[in-house]
Amino acid sequence: MDIDAYLKRIHYTDEVNTTLTTLRKLHCQHQLSIPIENLSIHYGQEIILDPESLFDKIITRKRGGFCYELNGLFFELLQAIGFQVKRVSGRVHDDVNGFHPEFDHLSIIAHVDGIDWLVDVAFGRHFPVYPLLLTRNQIQEDRTGRYQITELDADNLVIKQQNEQGDWIPGYSFTCIPRDLTDFAEMCHFHQTSKESFFTRNKLCTIVTPRGRITLTDHTLKITENGQVVDHVIADQLEFEDFLLDCFGIKMTRPALH
């Protein structure tokens, strides 16, 4: 792991140590610098879950990725710095199917000064800019919203976000069992290839900004700033790729596969 190259990629210039302050700053800078995106799936590029391949894609070639890639590589950075971390399996929730299968999502638990924190730089607008204290039924808040972690059952916890109506909406359930990166390979393949996967249906690139978020899909560019949202309808593939370059610095030139 080339720590210096990683820190340069996320524009991190502060002290590097294993304190909570550093973890919080790394978490924030990662989201401000590296987008969540599924472009490889739509441009015929296989996603390979090994640290060297992930580093080449995300750090050297300045791309983004989805949870297996971003949290998978962020785990490697935190471990290289000296943090006590473990990968954990999450099961994303939706209103139609409930909780998805095991290994549907990869997130991280960091143990800092005797306290556990849920770390996730790849769950988009449904996770805060900073890690969540891994404690039950405590409301935690930042500029992105209000969150809490509750018990789902005897073995699983669930992260919830409060919506505008005041209801607590499940994001994903998770256990605290440590996992290997290879444990996620089967579900990573599913999300690259299955028509049932959210990621095969629509191109997505989204990143946190200092005052909001920018999200680009096949059909819309959405810019959120200080709570105000501006939508722009995408005319065609060429305009999509122009915005991809202008807003995210990513150049994709091969025709999308359908």
UniProtKB/TrEMBL annotation:
Source superkingdom: Bacteria
The entry's keywords: Transferase
Any Pfam family: Acetyltransf_2
GO MF term list: acetyltransferase activity
SUPFAM superfamilies per record: Cysteine proteinases (SSF54001)
InterPro entries from the UniProt entry: Arylamine_N-AcTrfase, Arylamine_NAT_domain_sf, Papain-like_cys_pep_sf
Keyword Cell division: no
UniProt keyword annotation of Transferase present: yes
Family indicated by similarity: Belongs to the arylamine N-acetyltransferase family.
UniProt name for this protein: Arylamine N-acetyltransferase
